[in-house]
Queue: 3 jobs
Job 1
Amino acid sequence: MCVRSIGMRLLLAVVLSAGGVACLTSAAPAKGAGSSAVAADQPHLPDAVPRVGAIHRGAGGKIEIIDPTAESGKPGSPCAKGTICVGKGQAYETLAAALAAAREGDVLDIVAGLYRESARIAVRGVTLRGVSGVPHFDCAGLHLVSDKACLLLAANDVTIENIEISGAELSEGVGANGACIRNEPNMSFTLRRLVCHGSQDGILSDGGNILIENSEFYDNGWTDRTHNVYFGGNCSVTVRGSVFRDARIGHEFKSRCAETTIFDSTFRSTKGSRDLDIPDGGDTKIYRSTLEKTRGAQNYEIIGFAAESCIHPGDLLLKDVVIINAQPEADIRNYDKCEGHPIIIDGMTVKGVAPRELGYIKTATTVSGRPAPER
């Protein structure tokens, strides 16, 4: 043998000696070279290749890298270029399959149609967007993912747009609180043009920063423990241009958030409980919105503020609101758990019977420092 090693790095060369013996020799690194230096004639690792999508082996056994957006934007496709296309006859026929290939920040265009599936969305920053109409996720009779929701949000900053969801139901043994939308703790999300109905809960959230725009929730809240929408945990919620109506038994809108801000929205209680339930106090502002109470509602309160605790000390502002009331015993009530924090009425129009005002309530023409911001 004539194998010699000099230094830490081996440069291998094969030299045939006169006697036919292969000799492997090595050369030392150049004097003064750093430990990370690689000589030009030595092998280099290839540059890192960014992840493209799911990796699997084709029929011939070779590894294939799949670009989940490759079939979007083709002639005749309803999906936009650069999106992941979901629907019958599209690149992915189910939402679950599309999510398995999705990466952070991807847009999933979901073609209008009926989808019978419950899915867990665990990719940060993805957008689910209905196209060519409104896709409908009907979860009636299905096992809800993780015994929670039709669509379970398990990553931050998920956006859902232009989608209908219904039929989320769980047995008493697992909570009887199936939701159209539910988040894992402290996952923030945005909903736009969402229609949610016929489920035990519309939204059942636990923390996070939540934005809801131009959406509608109805025929949810089947018990006194479920609601059209419920926001709990370490949360803030902002609502614009949305409708919450006709809960079966529960509240139209219930928020335990430290901050609740509502613009240009409608709350209509015809069978169930309060239009607005803010049980733990909190900085709550309602601008340019309508609250309606009919005779058929089981709970006569239009608004209940700080009824259970004062976890979040703060005032509730009603700015330029309209009350439509047919219930003679209806009221707006501050339970005064947050001592010194009033319900402030700054512009209220009543159509029908004027509700009673109970607890610490202040009326003002102008409230300093609390103008309704521009949309």
Job 2
Amino acid sequence: METYIGLDPSTVANRLQLLHGRWRSLFPAYGLVTFADWHPKEHLPRYLNDPKFSDKLYTRQEFLCVYTLAAEHSQAYLRALPKAEQTIYQRWTLPLFPKQLTK
């Protein structure tokens, strides 16, 4: 069984666990209450350089990579839906992180 983009469900589950694990630390640290408060353009660079987290560079980079892929996949899925459904499901997609900021 595969997802619409050919990912194995266990791959998706592993990525979600990694994201959730970091968000459990980031949300309280940055005063985020709901997912609507999450702004990757602001919060990802902040996390990558935040000395109050003991995360190694590899962990931070892995989070950025997994987040970027998950956001791209969720946005691609949204674009594949009929317009009426895009409006319904938009709030559950991950906001994109600008590629130019990953360099």
Job 3
Amino acid sequence: MNYLGHKSVKNTMLYIQLEQAIYKEASDQFTCRIVSNAEDAKGLVETGFEYVCTTPQDAMLFRKRK
């Protein structure tokens, strides 16, 4: 509740219920991709991949639920 900035636990519970409904059958397994330029990164985002981070070697990491 505090982490999300909600004043009421009811709002937090709503988000928990939404998350459970959306990801009920989703696994914690991901397809991962590594790219090193903006054009490839754009292509991944357009196909549903989510940006995770950039490594010290300037490689960008992306993931998408299986």
